[in-house]
Design goal:
The chain is mainly alpha-helical. The protein is built from 3 helices and no strands. It is about 55% helix and about 0% strand.
């Protein structure tokens, strides 16, 4: 993004963890909502989290999806 002119700011790890913790229930909440609508949201979210981790991504807080 910087290459095309975006200003990117890095947040301290403590702020990233605090923010991630504040949202920790939201991914499951939304996935459950979409599952009830007939979409495989929980399955897709779990797969996306796992694949990102396989590629080396480190989450400040690892969201749990059922």
């Amino acid at each position: 993004m910087r290459k095309v002119g975006a200003i990117v700011k890095q947040l301290p790890d403590a702020v990233r963890v605090e923010w991630a913790n504040s949202l920790k229930g939201w991914p499951q909440e939304k996935a459950t909502e979409l599952d009830k609508a007939g979409l495989p949201a929980s399955q897709v979210l779990k797969l996306a989290l796992e694949e990102a981790e396989k590629l080396g991504h480190k989450w400040p807080v690892r969201y749990q999806v059922k």
